[in-house]
Each structure stands twice: as C-alpha cells, then as structure tokens.
Amino acid sequence: YNINWNYGLLPQTWEDPSFANPEVEGAFGDNDP
Question: A Gene Ontology molecular-function term (predicted)?
Fold first, then answer.
C-alpha cells in the first residue's frame, strides 16, 4: 500500500478533518509530503 494516496481516500484524515479542499474535489486537506 502507498500511504501517500491511501489516506486521501479515507473519510477521515489525520491532517485537518474540518477542511475540505475544493481543488481535489472535496478531499480533506493535507500538507504532508
């Protein structure tokens, strides 16, 4: 598994669950490399 994309598909995120990024179709924000 590639966690760099896998976590982006989860309904919950470990970065900021209250902010949905519109640039990625409502996926939750992450600034982690």
Answer: inorganic diphosphate phosphatase activity
Query: Residue 29 is encoded by which pair of tokens?
Result: 């924000």
pLDDT in tens, 1-33: 455 555 555 555 455 555 555 555 545 556 665
Ranges assigned E (strand) in 1-33 = 20-21, 27-28
4: which DSSP letter? H
Residue pair 16/31 in contact (Cβ under 8 Å)? The answer is no
**Contact criterion met (CB below 8 Å) for 27 and 17:** no
Residue with tokens 């990625």: 24
